[in-house]
Amino acid sequence: MKLLGLGAVALHSFTSMAFSKKQTNALELIGKGKPTVYGKGFSLRKEAYDAFVKMCAAAAKDGFDIYVVSSYRTYAHQNRIWERKYKRFTKQGLSPIQAIKKIITYSTIPGTSRHHWATDIDIIDKNASYSGDVLVPKKFHGDGPFCKLREWLEEHANSFGFYIVYTDHAHRKGFKYEPWHYTYAPISIPMLKEYRKLNIKEMLQKEKLMGSEHFSEEFINSYIKENILDINPELLS
User: Fold this and answer.
1) Does residue 153 sit in helix, strand or coil?
2) What's the fold here for domain 8-235?
3) Spatial CB neighbours of 45, under 8 Å, sequence gap ≥ 6
């Protein structure tokens, strides 16, 4: 991703100022709090919402209608996604471990989703002609319906504070490439910093998630390193 309008130093300085206005508690970091959110058909924190509205207006001038497929998710919401996929994959004959590994190709374990923070969005171009599943990488490349939007975002999103999270860097591990997933960096960078202070291993071991009895210490350590932290380096403080 190109860095437009804000240098790396300026961005990290801005995040500290923005976050200092209101510290986020641990419950909000894991999706069990009640953050104040804004938006119609989607939910974002105020600063992220304001920046998103400006980005949408700029995109509209170039012929794009940015549509939010997913934004803020509570712990309960993420847990429903987790349980639905776990049941489906195990019914298909996968072992619990195989099902868990398949889920975390794209979906997070409840309590670890960036969508809990009300800073992240999955977006497409509503003006494009499309059918079927929309959040698939091939639809953002080549002759895919959202290729032009991806190109526009790569050029302009950073100037509004939005950064891609799961890049297509060859050596990145964890979640697969998601050209649709953007985060409002001035808020999410310091939130990740606070999130890293939590005892994530203890939290995951205590939560009675479907299949969590198969979360070994090795698995949890790997998940934290690869799925939570192996992201766009611009988003790491």
Assistant:
1) helix
2) Muramoyl-pentapeptide Carboxypeptidase; domain 2 (3.30.1380)
3) 35, 36, 37, 38, 117, 118, 119, 184, 187
